[in-house]
């Protein structure tokens, strides 16, 4: 661990302090580390769009929609190399939520996630991609 001393404008310092408070960080260092990791992760995904990643994909769907549940399961089987796990919860009489952990080449993961989210009856789809090589020192 190294200590960094940085100087920022008053306005920026106030905004940072507000962000720390609003997001419930215990200290500024953890808030700054998260901002930096997010930026580095984005940069890595831009520079190496085909590197390895892990990702979570969540979406809501209506299991009464014709064939949809089966189609989603079929797609996951077809991409079993990318699908690490699937968690399913029944929200009410009609609605289900699924969260998938995906792992693989970033482009392939994105394409697969997009195909799932694009299915008619699938809503609120959201993909969070985490580049893997950031953690190569482990
Ligand atoms: Ni269900």
Strand order in the sheet with the most strands: 2-3-1-4
Q: Judging from the principal axes of the Cα atoms, what is the shape?
A: elongated
The biggest sheet amounts to: 4 strands, antiparallel
The total count of helices amounts to: 4
CATH class of the largest domain: Alpha Beta
The H/E string reads: HHEHEEHE
Beta-strand residue percentage: 25-35%
Predict the CATH topology of the largest domain: Alpha-Beta Plaits
- What's the rounded overall pLDDT mean? 93
Distance between the termini: 15 Å
Q: Oligomeric form of this entry? A: single chain
Could you explain the architecture of this structure?
The protein has 138 residues and is of the alpha+beta class. It has two domains: 10-47; 52-135, ACT-like. Chain A, domain 2 (Alpha-Beta Plaits), CATH 3.30.70.1150. The protein is built from four helices and four strands. The chain has helices spanning 10-22, 28-47, 68-78, 106-117, and strands at 52-62, 83-90, 95-105, 122-131. A hairpin with a 4-residue loop joins strand 2 (83-90) and strand 3. Nickel (II) ion (NI) binds at residues 63, 88, 90, 96.
